[in-house]
Amino acid sequence: MTQQGKFILFTLDEFASWLDNLILHRKISLIQNHHTFLPDYKAFNKRKTDKYFTWLVSMEAAHQERGFSEIAQNITTFPDGMLAICRNFETLPAGIKGANANGICMEHLGNFDLGKDTMTEEHKHTIVTINALLCAKFKLGISTKSVVYHHWYDLNTGKQVVEGTGTTKTCPGTNFFGGNTKEACQKNFLPLVEQVVVVA
Ligand SMILES: [Zn+2]
């Protein structure tokens, strides 16, 4: 575990015990999955030293330029499987319009649109495990009611829309675990999350 300002960098195991000990007063019912788009894997790997904190600080500056008070996400995951706590869990994220009040926002560093970054095995493992840990911690069923993708929400209304309609982003990527639709999530992603054994 290393800390720089509010950012705390963890291995997956360190995060699991941190989460286990966390007492949270805010009610959590939605686990949001996003990709950063930029920085992507190439940008991350280009930096040889201090790449985690440099990118966290840089993302925060970009979010502040867009008018947010601080970095938008509660958690960032990295290509090598490390992850960082960003915005305090007690503070609403600025992740998905209409889904922040009871949400935890996770940004997975990379561009997972088709033909872009190929997710590493370490990154896959962290993303799957962290979704399982958060569902267990907040006593949420592993389903598309609690594990959500940004793509499912209309950017203007903040409501979920039928696939192929409304104004949506591709986030967390058209090739995120084989697709960004609700159907792809149920078929490819949630079965992996269900396989994780969470020791409480
Ligand atoms: Zn997003």
Automatic annotation (TrEMBL):
InterPro entries: Amidase/PGRP_sf, Amidase_domain. GO terms for molecular function: N-acetylmuramoyl-L-alanine amidase activity. Residues 26-173 form the N-acetylmuramoyl-L-alanine amidase domain. It comes from the Bacteria. SUPFAM superfamilies: N-acetylmuramoyl-L-alanine amidase-like. Coiled coil: none annotated. One of its GO terms (biological process) is peptidoglycan catabolic process. It holds the Pfam family Amidase_2. Gene3D superfamilies: Peptidoglycan recognition protein-like (3.40.80.10). This is N-acetylmuramoyl-L-alanine amidase.
